[in-house]
Structure formats: C-alpha cells, structure tokens
Amino acid sequence: xxxxxxxxxxxxxxNEAVLRTLPEDDGTDFTLANKGFIGTIKNATICxxxxxxxxxxxxxxxxxxxxxxxxxxxxxLWRQAQLNSIHGLFxxxxxxxxxxxxDLSNITFIEGDTGYLIIDPLISAExxxxxxxxxxxxxxxxPVVGVIYTHSHVDHYGGIRGVLSEDxxxxxxxxxxxxxxxxxxxxxxxxxxxxxxxxxxxxxxxxLPPGPRGHVDAGLGKTVSLGKTSLxxxxxxxxxxxxxxxxxxxxxxxxxxxxxEAPAEMNFYFPQFxxxxxxxxxxxxxxxxxxxxxxxVRDANAWSFYINEAIDLYADEVEVLFxxxxxxxxxxxxxxxxxxxxxxxxxxxxxxxLRLANHGLTALExxxxxxxxxxxxxxxxxxxxxxxxxxNTKAVYQKYLGWFDGNPANLNKWPPQQAGEKYVAALGGAExxxxxxxxxxxSGDYRWVAELANHLVFAQPDNKAAxxxxxxxxxxxxYQAESGPWRGFYLTASAELRNPIxxxxxxxxxxxxxxxxxxxxxxLCALAVRLNGPRAGAQKITLNLQIRDTDERFLLxxxxxxxxxxxxxxxxxxxxxxxxxxxALADIGLKIRSIEDVMESGELQVDGxxxxxxxxxxxxxxxxxxxxxxxx
Length: 632
Prior knowledge:
Helix content is 39%, strand content 15%. It is of the alpha+beta class. The strands form 4 sheets. Strands 1-4-5-6-7-8-9-10 form an 8-stranded mixed beta sheet, covered by helices on one side. A 6-stranded mixed beta sheet has the order 11-12-13-14-15-16. The chain has a 5-stranded mixed beta sheet with strand order 19-18-17-20-21. Helix 1 packs parallel to helix 16 and helix 16 (464-480) packs antiparallel against helix 17 (484-498). The chain is globular. The model has no long low-confidence stretch (mean pLDDT 96).
C-alpha cells in the first residue's frame, strides 16, 4: 500500500498565504459552539449491535480545539475542524436541546408536555439512539411524541429507527415533513443513489484514515456515520407557509422553502421559545448550490428569497437561531445580521454569475474570476468549508444555461479514454507528457499536472508512473483545499490511484435498506431505472400486481424497453396476476432474495405465467457500488 506524502514547499507557501488573509478570530465561534454544554459520552464512541464503531470522535483528537495546524491542512479548514470536534448535549434555550457531532448533522430535542419532539434523527439509527439516550440521561426518560424531517437529505431522516420503535411507526406517530419530501428523497437518494453514494465516499473522505494527511473534516460536520439507515415515510405534510401545529403542547409555525438547499425543505418557528430553526438553509459556511457528490442543482435565487422571507416573518421576535448543522446564535440583532449576510451570499453568487454570463463569460471563466465583496469575506460563516464560490458559480451557470458553454468545440468532445489517447499522441507519447507534467509539479502548478496526467492515466491506466504523479498532484491540491469536500475528493482520488480498487465481474451493491422501506410506487420507480433497456429489446411483459399489506394494485408493463406502472389499473389478459408484500417486491427487484425463496416464505403468489416475472427480474441490473472514478 502506498502512503500519503508530506506537504510540498508550494503547498506550505499556499497555506501560509491563506493564513494571512483570514478574518480576525476573536474566539466568538468557539464560545458559541461550547455554550450550553451539558454532557457527552466518552469520545462520542457509538457501536452497532456487533460491537463495531459506527461513530468515534477519538479518531479526531488530533484536530481538537487548541491543536496546531499541520502543513498538510488548509488553516481555515483546520479551524472549522476544531469547531466540529466539540460534541455532546447542549441547551439551546428553555426546552430546546441539541446533540451535536454524534453524526454529520445535529439532532434537536424539544421538550413537550409529556415527551420529546425530535428534529432530524441523523443519518443512522445507532447515533440517533445514543443521542436520545444522552438526552434522557440528563432530561428524563420521556417518550418520543413526534419527529420532524426538515428536508429530504439522508442525514436528516436516515436514523429514525433509532428514536422510534416499530410500534410507534405502526401506530402512526406524527412524522412531519415538507410537501414533496418523499418524492425528493427518492429522486435524490434512490434513483441515482448508487452513483451518488459512491461519489459521497470521495466527498466525505469515508475511505480516508483520519489524520493530518487524511480526513480532517467535512466542513458541514465531522464525517458520516456508518450505522443502519432507513426511511420511514412522513404522516403529515406541510404544504404552505404559515401552517401551524401543536405537538404535545409545542406550538410550531412553518415556512416552506422549496428548491433551496433541498427540493423539499422547511424552516419553522417556535413562538413560545422565540426560537427559529433554519433547517439547512443557513449554516456556518457557504453551502452547496451544487453538491459534488451529485444532486439536482439548487436555486440560489429562491434560497436567498426564502431567507429574506424568514427575516420578514421572524427576525423581529427571534431570540435564538439554530439549524441542522453547526452551532446556534443568540440575540435578535446577531440573528438578523447572520440571516442578512447569508441571504446576500447566495443572491450575490446568483446575480453576479448571471451578470458575467450575459457579458459572454463561460462557467470556467466566471469561476476563476468571481470574488465575494469585503463585507461578506469578513465573516467566517461565508467561507468555502462545504460549498465553494468556484463550483457554486458553475452551478448557477448550469441551472440557467446548462453544461454547454456555446463553443461548438465543446459540444461533442471525446470521452476521457479516447481523449486521453489522442492527447498522449499529440504531446509526443507518454514519456514526453510525463516530462511536462513533472516540470509543472516542480513549479507547484498542481492543477495543470492533474489535467495533463489525467489524460495519460485514462489512455494507459496501467502506467504506474502516470498514476503516481497524478496522485501526488491531487494530494497537494487536497492539502491546500479550504473545502472539506474538495479535500475529500482530492485525497480519496489520490489514494485510489496509488492503490486501485480492483474491478469485479460480480456487482458489489451498496446498502439498499432505505429503498426497501419505500412505498410500492417509489419501489417501482426505482426498479424502472434498473431495467437494462438494450437487453430488454422488443420484449413485452404485462403483470397485474396486488400489494397485500397496503391493498394497492398496479399494472406493470414492459414495452419499448421501458418499465411502466399505473396505480389502480389491471390488464384483462396479463401474463400473470401477482400478489405479494411490499418488502417482497423490493427484495425481488433488488435481487436480495430469489423468487423461489419469497414464494416459499408465503409472501408471493403467482396466478399465471411465473416465467414472465422471472424474465422481468432477469432484465434488472444490480449496480456495482465500487465503480471506478479516477480510472477508466
């Protein structure tokens, strides 16, 4: 195994230059991040049922507050990493508490008349259960009376089975979410979930060892937990701003904010406590308008609009502002100033990107040239710890003008492997290209090394010298990155170039627990994207489905190499009438269990041509989670 290397002279100089440009640090953020501390568990170490740690802050003691920044980490990101190392249960205000840094996100507890209302139950069940246990240890062994999902990203719903029992779920305990939550969760996390999940291993540095040369921080939080993830559909949807609920004596007023940080998201205000939850629309950094793990491009203009609406609705009353990540802010004037600058941060990026685009600049040119105004760069909470000004300007350009910059030379470019072969030939062969790339490395131009060497790596993936040089260049770019995700991408790519993941004839699927928990309609949508169209060809299959446990009926049809389903319909002359449970449908489609096993269990009955069902399942792909990214 090849190991990480030291920071180069150019990287040391780059990070020293960053240090000289940072805002003054008066310690305010550290005071805020520690305010209200009640207690924690040792090292925030949380294990699953098999005794394996799914979360362990002991691994990050090297970047605890007060530690010295190494040359291999951008000093601004190091400061954020120190803040995100502060973990435990904190009092936000009367009856509102947060457990922070037990996962990538925060879990918030509101004390009702008889129990706890929970906001955002983390990524996985084990950290969520540990957080609830910590709350009960200090505030009493009370039941959970409801759950709020602020939005449709997995770090805000995936751990729900750690705080709710199966009996709670079957009893229909209130699970509140913005309108469109389930559709957005499926679209963003299920339909493209395999690709998104694999890319997330880069973005969050999940495969990197924690340390000064490896994973330091994700910017948004420390890292992602590795426990059991699931999705339980909401029971209450919030459709309009101004809607109000009372849960166990807790008054809540909602503000829906679609197409902001997520397609379905909402802020909400607790008038009894003068506390405003800004979900993930305002956090202590510049967020992603486009997330590098892959997702729909977000609407920076809408984002700014809804922050401004929150100011109009609540800023005159609010005494404490908290969110789904990072630490709160106290005081009406402080909260208003924070909201004003977060609003203008996204509006500036939106407006100035389009101004420059209308002058004819391309996305790459805008990203290279655009800078924030001094009034915004003076704040720590506008910095590039998660989103970056560079890739967010490209996102705005993409939303309005798409991936094409108007230059026909970029309209139909060769894909990486073919382009790599042509570049290598044009530059005089592999050795000549390597000579030029080495010269660029020696000069500290790691961006150019990455571009040159990438062509050779894709043309000749077995060329170890090319892979090693590309790895070295990406590593130095990672050491210089202020953004946690950029560091994660650079360093994970470097590690995989030095120690490539072997290809496999057999797909190696990722976790599919969340997909197994979806309603039947959403399962069928997810299975449709697994249909191998070229293999399906001209085949035709028609099946009548009855979902036994929900009493739903669907007409499932394969035609024109497309898998369609229609709710409440059936065909008179279908190939088969199939009765099965929702879980059996998911397991068969995902090839977790065979048709024979499911029939033997009694969860599946087929009246008609069983072979038609087998033929359809045979046409469904199993996705390989470990597909290559930096190699062809």
